[in-house]
Predict the structure.
Amino acid sequence: MSSANVGGPSQSTPPPPPTQSHQSAEPQQPPAPPPDANDDDAHLEIDTATPTDSDADSAFDANSTSSTSLASSILNYEYSNGRRYHGYRSGAYPLPNDDEEQDRLDLLHHIFLLLLNGKLYDAPLPNPPSRVLDLGTGTGIWAIDFADENPGSTIVGTDLSPIQPSWVPPNARFYIDDAEAEWVYPAEERFELVHVRGLSGSIGDWDRLVAQCFAHLEPGSGWLEFQEPEAWVWSDDGSVAKAESLVQWQELCNSAAGKFGKELRVGAGLGERMRRAGFVDVRERVVKVPVGGWPKDARMKEIGRYQREHMAMGIEPYTYGFIGKVLGWTEEECKVITAKVVNEVRDRSLHLYIKFWFVCGRKPE
Ligand SMILES: C[S@@+](CC[C@H](N)C(=O)[O-])C[C@H]1O[C@@H](n2cnc3c(N)ncnc32)[C@H](O)[C@@H]1O
């Protein structure tokens, strides 16, 4: 049983429904130091030492089957290619919501924590925000961590899938809701932080999303923060040229996402969209996240090992979701390209990285 509210707000603690489509769910964080734009976009030095046993042993147990407590059967899920998909607003989001996908999302959360040195957000808020909205909350792991760390704050998480756990902190609520529907939060319930992470490939109209965030933020003190990994691999030593299947795959995924009407590579445009919508103090930070333990730097080596496993887990769902469903490849064709791409993701001779975008801005008075 999920804590997500379906068909009406929670009986015990009835907050008003957040949008028209609503189907219904302090360790003080120090203000983040104001980093310069792109300050992490530095060259990653390659570790030329022979891979050690610890490198051979993945930092992540790829056989883990944890997070079974998150499953829910409240809604009519859909099944294809052996994966489970959301039923509410069927087809709006092409990736699965099953246990395997939830494990991937929770691993991605861990990578974000490592990148932000344990912080949950990058925006320079002077105090923990009192009301927070986490759009497309997934397993709710970010919202739950935030609620645990900030018992004086209220946090609302929304998603198309009711995959949030039953046991949540009392200051966290989850709702089944479409972020692209009209929001109807009352004016007295404006947010001090809207957190949007990993929604590339999920949103058709980003300008409208940014405008809705702006409208529902507290003037003067409300911040919007995007945290977006970009679905594109790079290398600084040219080794990406050897990842032929991966390069073909990412081009296919991106063209499928364009055809589907929900672009994947949105990070670079978010800052400009926010400025156009009226946000001030907008800052954009790009972090190169290695795929594998190839960097010399110990912290980036650890992050790279997690990212390699995270990416290996993500190839199949993106293949079925975009190349299969949108471009019409057969299950067999999807399996073949998935296997080739996963091999390249695990190829230790490649020094690949992807870019993670951290973009935030404040609503003026
Ligand atoms: C890649 S996951 C990211 C989850 C979470 N933000 C995180 O970082 O762990 C994207 C999530 O967005 C949800 N989603 C996609 N489109 C949505 C929409 N239109 N409204 C609400 N949620 C949506 C999906 O169901 C999925 O849980």
About this structure: The mean pLDDT is 86. The longest strand covers residues 223-235. The CA atoms of residues 137 and 157 lie 5 Å apart. The domain at 53-362 is CATH 3.40.50.150 (Rossmann fold).
